[in-house]
Design a protein that fits this description.
The structure holds 2 protein chains of 2 kinds.
Chain A: H1 2-7, H2 10-40, E1 48-54, E2 57-72, H3 73-78, E3 89-96, H4 100-103, E4 107-110, E5 117-119, E6 125-129, E7 134-144, E8 147-151, H5 152-201, H6 206-237, E9 240-245, E10 251-255, E11 259-263, H7 270-286, E12 289-290, E13 295-296, H8 299-330, H9 335-347, H10 352-375, H11 390-415, H12 418-426, H13 431-460, H14 463-468, H15 495-504, H16 509-549
Antiparallel strand pairs in A: 1-2, 1-5, 2-3, 3-4, 6-7, 6-11, 7-8, 7-9, 9-10, 12-13
Chain B: H1 2-7, H2 14-51, E1 59-67, E2 75-80, E3 86-91, E4 95-100, E5 106-111, E6 120-126, E7 132-137, E8 141-152, E9 159-165, E10 173-174, E11 182-189, E12 193-200, E13 205-212, E14 229-236, E15 242-247, E16 253-258, E17 262-267, E18 275-281, E19 289-294, E20 301-305, E21 310-318, E22 321-329, E23 337-342, E24 348-353, E25 357-362, E26 367-373, E27 381-384, E28 390-394, E29 398-405, H3 413-417, E30 432-433, E31 444-445, H4 448-479, H5 482-493, H6 500-517, H7 519-542, H8 545-548, H9 556-583, H10 587-595, H11 604-628, H12 632-640, H13 645-674, H14 677-682, H15 700-707, H16 716-752
Antiparallel strand pairs in B: 1-29, 2-3, 3-4, 4-5, 6-7, 7-8, 8-9, 8-10, 11-12, 12-13, 13-14, 15-16, 16-17, 17-18, 19-20, 20-21, 21-22, 23-24, 24-25, 25-26, 27-28, 28-29, 30-31
Helix pairs in contact in B: 2-16, 4-11, 4-13, 6-11, 7-9, 11-13, 12-13, 13-16, 15-16
The chains are: A alpha+beta, B alpha+beta.
Chain lengths: ~550, ~750
């Protein structure tokens, strides 16, 4: 019977079916993995307090449980951990104990003995700090200029409004430092370059120079004003601090200025948890990164990615569309066009790093170098365009994605029934009128598809950008309040590179991992939505022409 | 009137305007279209343009020539400074003459042997110690001198002031107490000590060890340091016919050569324990040694003979004892070698023959980049500038200066794709090691480990992807219910757009530790999965029809999802038990001890799976299209003739669609070869050549990403990375074109069926 069954070929069909199922499981599993890990990070988890006895010493551990796993004892013994047990496996727990300033590292692998008492005290507080990562422990009191103003529960009651106040101050300080003083510095640098330009050109225009000096003096005056208000704000923000105790009894002083958020994770109600969740999510999307990108938000990366992609789309869409129209409507169809078509098609399969190195060599070192010589001699030897930047990044990606637009548009053009063109021409329209009035409107969805696919590809591309413009931390956005507003020469941050950088180059990978998942989830979400849009448009398009043809 | 009409914009007829617009559109479309197409094809040409200089031969052009000043004696040696502006000529009367290289005008002459009646009987430049020369004198003494060019910027203009420094004192040092003339000398120094070896007229070999008393450095600018040395004179073993001496930079070994090319290697590291390590014959019978010099770095020795042969030798360790070994020989010249001048910053050298043939070589690449014959000159001396872009030749009457254009001599086919014997290596190897801070470093630009890594990564990726993607495509296209297909196909295809940086991140930070933990479980999946599925399907087969018909045809795959989950769970949860049972609880240790395999956490398995996931959608999508578009009447015919669906599939469908499946694999392969982020993040990026699945690799693309930001623009390293990009470009382009042509043919075939 088995022989017969094998002969029927059924088992092989089942195996083929299994391949599909596996692929589906991989796809869905991947997306779920990213989504779950990325989104759960913001949920305020319980903090445990474990009391255990080790070598007749009482130890208290406070922290979040990150994961637990079963390991063979042998492996632990091989790596030099001494455990006395007759079992072959043991469960160990990864605990996030925080308090990097006191405990050295955020994470600990713990093997809980059987007599461990685990409970969830409601008054444990978790503090997100601007430096040294999270704090877990108990609040003791709040001091104002060194004097205690509240203790224990009263302190916790007073803490929240104080945090809100200092956060406001913090925002003010940052605004002054970054926007106001940053803007002044930017303008001063421009004046310096202007002077240098005069010097280089040998012009001695006294009036202009005097004007520059006057403006500079004004800027310096403004700067002094800002400096004074900063001093006041700094004094105000350092007024309060919190004294607290961590798990091993050490005292920690947390200046209020360094607190982002504080809550009692075990005392939160469900609604409070949701509100904390969204406040964390908002911080992630709208704030700047902290602590070498391992905490805080990713706003500059989102902004950089979006801006770069928009610039690229502006560059690539007209170029790709024109090339496609030329190839399909104007060029003489023959072996040469066929060859070009194959070449263009295959360029889409050329590794992106090749485009990256081309961008580096041609755009940055060659074109950028020439532009600097011609237009920005005053800034040399500091390069202006002769260095990686957002313009070159979008140009490189435009070249990378132009085959996608060409192919998609050509496909759209080829789907337009010949009868429509012939009808238009027969009615006396010129070729260009046919093109503008009939063909382009009908091919618009195809062009849109091409553009969306190009954007989806560009948004996820990292390798070439590493050579032509992204940095791990850009001091300022490429679009800001200082003229000329759009700074094409600036370097920028990028979601994909952020993932690579934080996941692989950061000093504290373990702590940063949830953020990387969250960033990945955001990127996947954007790209999947873009692709679904492209598929949807394409399908609609096909329907439309099917109707036309019949 | 006609003209005026035109200028006043005559009322054009509507038709004319329309024609004009039509022409304008056509023009702009053509210009724009061709422009865009040219721009994207520019990539190829730009890569070629950047790479081309690597393969260009060197160029030499005469700059100037002027008569030699014989008043101060015959020329012994010439040297040029960094800027190629001033050169120095040492003569056999003990003079150092500095002259301008553009005019030949004498700038300064220094009598090195002032107040000394001895004659110069031998002379040697001490290679590897900057600009230092040593004179052996007729009274058994040696003088060590060093030319130095002091650069200053008075009034923002560069001024070069030449001068002579005496590192071991102005007074010649007594070597031979018997005061015999010295027929050859050699000198080597470091911060603490210096060694001089000399051959006397009566064929004794003497070594002088100078050691500093105080712990200061041998100050370059300090002229009065002679008093602070202690001097020890040691006799070295006698060698019949000793002619030439070299001391290697660490001052541990001296090489003493005879005219017939016999080299005695002597250990001189301890002055009270001098011993001969070995004797080696460098030449064939009847040949005589005419040139004997170190290559930059002082490891390799270049040997030139009277028949125009040049060979490279260096000590190779065998059982910790160095043996001077023949490494490679260079293109034979037409006549005997007179002089070999080595470059200071690359492993290159210039040779000149009796008949005036000048050749420039690179030793690592075994490449002759230039070979010209200047017969009328009968050149006797050559000097190469530190940057190796300027050459001075001299004969009895004339000094001639040359400009050399030799930017990238380091590259040849052999160095990229063949095994090369690098200095200090025990055997020829494929190695990629592109840069180091050291000038003496021999760059190792073998593409082999990178190409190997690229193919290895692609191989493991395909190993994972091909079965899943093609089997999946077969089922989806041929057996799956249309309703399910409408969901399955796009959801697998959407994966194609998943940024590879995310896959790389998951591979490196999630999959790699996961696989390390569950290695046994993952490998047991290979057995558990197919067996389990077959068991399940057999069980399904035996179920009563009533239940079986509940699931419509073509939904097997959906049915299997929970089964696969279950099997996966079983395999993974059994993993620790299996590991304890079969591998003593630690498979990594077991692999190392039983099979001698090292285990890297980020290895080819991780890359294979991650990159496999990246290429599955590509292969799946194209293969599925190919199978799905096999004309239906073919399959119906086969089924009507009584073949089972499986037989129809194997004998008809797959056979017809095989070119399409082939092209799917090619395109997938192209993608795997060029993928950068996954390999960058999921491997250790070490350029090893080991096919083990538990080892990492470095691919061409990851190598570019890692190294290009640090490469100096237009340097050899930079251009080589462009060459790597060009190789990748061509590779994927060829793969894709082949696939495209196959698909094109297939489409034609279908339409004719």
């Amino acid at each position: 019977m088995i022989k017969k069954w094998f002969k029927s070929g059924d088992p092989w069909i089942w195996l083929n079916a299994a391949a599909v199922s596996t692929s589906i499981i991989i796809v869905v599993g991947l997306l779920l993995l990213i989504a779950v890990r990325g989104l759960s990070h913001f949920w305020p988890a319980h903090v445990i307090q474990a009391e255990l006895v080790n070598n007749s010493q009482r130890i208290t551990l406070i922290g979040e449980v990150i994961e637990t796993e079963e390991v063979p004892i042998q492996r632990l013994l091989d790596s030099g951990i001494n455990i006395k047990t007759d079992k072959e496996f043991i469960t160990r727990t990864l605990l996030k104990v925080g308090n990097r300033d006191k405990l050295g590292s955020d994470f600990r692998w713990i093997i809980f003995p059987e007599n461990t008492a685990i409970n969830y005290p409601k008054n444990i507080i978790q503090v997100e700090r601007r430096e040294w990562g999270n704090f877990y422990g108990y609040i003791k009191n709040i001091t104002k200029n060194g004097k205690i103003i509240a203790t224990q529960d009263a302190a916790w009651q007073q803490l929240q409004p104080l945090i809100d106040k200092t956060n406001e101050l913090h925002d003010k300080i940052r605004n002054i430092e970054k926007n106001e003083i940053g803007g002044i510095n930017y303008q001063l640098e421009r004046f310096r370059l202007e002077r240098r330009k005069f010097e280089l050109q040998g012009i001695n225009d006294k009036e202009a120079l005097a004007e520059i000096s006057a403006s500079e003096a004004k800027l310096y005056k403004e700067y002094e004003v800002h400096k004074k208000s900063l001093a006041v704000l700094y004094k105000e923000i350092t007024t309060y601090s919190v004294n607290a105790e961590i798990m091993d009894g050490q005292d920690v002083v947390i200046p209020l200025a360094t607190i982002v958020r504080a809550y009692q994770p075990n005392a939160l109600t469900f609604l409070q948890k949701i509100s904390t969740y969204f406040s964390k999510l908002a911080e992630f999307i709208f704030d700047d990164p902290r602590e070498a990108n391992t905490e805080g938000g990713i706003f500059p990366a989102i902004f950089g990615t979006v801006l770069m992609v928009i610039l690229m789309a502006i560059l690539v869409t007209p170029c790709g569309v024109i090339a496609a129209i030329y190839l399909r409507e104007y060029a003489k169809q023959g072996p040469l066009t066929r060859l070009i078509r194959i070449a263009v098609n295959n360029l889409a399969g050329v590794p992106s790093i090749v485009y990256g190195i081309f961008g580096l060599g041609f755009f940055i070192y060659f074109l950028g170098g020439e532009i600097d010589q011609l237009f920005y001699p005053e800034a040399l030897p500091t390069p202006t365009f002769g260095t990686p930047g957002i313009l070159w990044s979008s140009l490189t990606l435009a070249i990378l994605t132009v085959p996608v637009v060409i192919v998609a548009t050509e496909e759209g053009l080829s789907r337009i029934p010949k009868s429509l063109r012939e009808g238009s021409l027969a009615l006396g329209a010129t070729k260009s009128e046919t093109l503008w009035r009939i063909i382009i409107p009908m091919a618009t969805p195809a062009m849109m598809t091409g553009m969306i696919l190009a954007i989806a590809r560009a948004a996820g591309e990292v390798a070439p950008l590493m050579l032509v413009g992204v940095v791990k931390l850009a001091p300022s956005l490429p679009l800001d309040g200082s003229a000329p507003f759009l700074h094409l020469d600036r370097k920028f941050m990028h979601l994909g590179f952020h993932i690579y950088d934080v996941g692989f180059q950061s000093p504290n990978v373990e702590a940063a991992r949830p953020l990387v998942y969250a960033t990945s989830f955001l990127l996947v979400l954007v790209i999947v939505i873009l692709n679904l849009a492209a598929i949807w448009i394409r399908n609609n398009l096909r329907e439309k022409y099917r109707n036309l043809e019949s | 009137m006609q003209l005026l009409n035109h200028l006043n914009f005559p009322k054009l007829s509507r038709a004319q305007i329309r024609t004009f617009k039509d022409k304008l559109t056509a023009f702009y479309m053509a210009v724009g279209g061709i422009g865009v197409i040219i721009t994207i094809l520019l990539i190829f040409f730009y890569l070629v343009y950047t790479v081309y200089p690597l393969f260009k031969s060197a160029d030499i052009s005469e700059v100037n020539s002027f008569p030699v000043n014989t008043h101060y004696g015959q020329t012994l040696h010439l040297a040029v400074e960094e800027q190629n502006k001033i050169a120095v000529q040492y003569t056999n009367k003990g003079y150092a003459l500095f002259f301008d290289t553009r005019t030949g005008k004498q700038i300064k002459q220094i009598d090195l042997l002032a107040n000394n009646k001895a004659k110069v009987t031998s002379f040697k430049i001490s290679q590897l110690v900057n600009n230092t020369v040593i004179f052996g004198l007729s009274n058994g003494r040696v003088l060590i001198a060093k030319h130095h060019f002091r650069i200053s910027y008075p009034d923002d203009k560069m001024h070069i002031e030449p001068e002579i420094i005496y590192p071991a004192g102005k007074k010649p040092i007594l070597v031979d107490n018997k005061k015999q003339a010295l027929i050859d000398v050699a000198y080597q120094q470091n911060d603490e000590q210096a060694r001089i070896i000399a051959i006397t007229d009566d064929n004794r070999i003497l070594m002088v060890l100078l050691q500093r008393e105080s712990s200061g450095l041998l100050e370059e600018e300090d002229e009065e340091t002679s008093a602070e040395f202690t001097k020890t004179i040691v006799d070295l073993p006698k060698i019949q016919g000793a002619q030439s001496i070299l001391i290697e930079p660490q001052q541990r070994i001296a090489y003493i050569a005879t005219k017939s090319g016999e080299i005695t290697v002597i250990d001189i590291s301890e002055e009270d324990n001098i011993n001969v390590i070995e004797k080696v014959h460098l030449l064939k019978d009847n040949q005589t040694l005419t040139s004997f010099t170190f290559l930059t770095g002082g490891i390799s020795i270049l040997v030139g003979n009277n028949e125009g042969e040049i060979a490279q030798w260096f000590p190779v360790n065998a059982d910790n004892i160095p043996h001077l070994t023949f490494i490679r020989s260079f293109n034979q010249q037409q006549s005997g070698i007179i002089d070999i001048e080595t470059e200071q910053r690359r492993k290159g050298f210039v040779s000149v023959t009796r008949d005036g043939q000048i050749a420039i070589f690179n030793s690592t690449a075994k490449r002759e980049v230039l070979n010209v014959v200047i017969p009328e000159m009968s050149i006797q001396h050559i000097a190469l500038s530190p940057r190796a872009d300027f050459l001075i030749t001299a004969n009895n009457k004339e000094i001639t200066t040359w400009h050399i254009e030799n930017e990238h001599p380091e590259i040849s086919w052999a160095i990229l794709w063949e095994q090369v014997w690098y200095e200090s290596y025990t055997e020829p190897e494929y190695t990629w090691q592109s840069s180091s801070a050291d000038n003496d470093f021999e760059p190792k630009y073998s593409f082999m480990p990178l190409a190997f890594g690229t193919l290895k990564a692609a191989f493991y990726a395909m190993l994972f992807a091909i079965p899943l993607a093609i089997m999946g495509a077969i089922y989806t296209a041929y057996f799956m219910a249309p309703k399910m297909r409408a969901i399955v196909k796009p959801s697998i295809e959407i994966m194609e757009a998943l940024p590879t940086v995310i896959l790389g991140f998951l591979a490196g930070l999630w999959l790699a530790p996961f696989l390390e933990e569950n290695l046994v479980g993952v490998f047991s999946l290979l057995i558990v999965m197919p067996m389990g599925i077959l068991l399940f399907s057999f069980g399904w087969q035996t179920l009563p029809k009533k239940i079986r018909l509940q699931v419509p045809d073509g939904w097997h795959a959906a049915l299997l999802i929970p089964v696969i989950f279950f099997l996966g769970w079983v395999a993974l949860s059994l993993s620790p038990q299996l590991e304890v049972f079969f591998f003593d609880g630690n498979i990594q240790l077991w692999l190392k001890e039983s099979l001698g395999m090292d285990f890297d956490q980020r290895n080819a398995l991780v890359v294979g799976i991650a990159m496999g996931v990246a290429v599955i959608p590509t292969i799946f999508s194209i293969a599925e299209d190919a199978i799905f578009s096999v004309p239906k009447h073919l399959t119906f015919g086969s089924l009507a003739l009584g073949a089972t669906p499986w037989q129809t599939l194997i004998r008809v469908v797959i056979l017809t669609a095989s070119p399409g499946i082939f092209s799917a694999v090619m395109i997938g392969m192209g993608r795997a070869v060029g993928e950068t982020m996954i390999v960058l993040m999921a491997t250790g990026n070490t350029p090893v050549m080991d096919f083990s699945i538990f080892q990492g690799m470095r691919t061409l693309s990851a190598n570019i990403a890692v190294e290009v930001p640090e490469a100096e623009v237009a340097s050899t390293h930079y251009r080589i990375l462009f060459l790597a990009a060009l190789v990748l470009f061509l590779f994927t382009f060829i793969f894709n074109t082949a696939a495209e042509i196959v698909r094109h043919r297939l489409r034609k075939k279908y339409s004719s069926l």
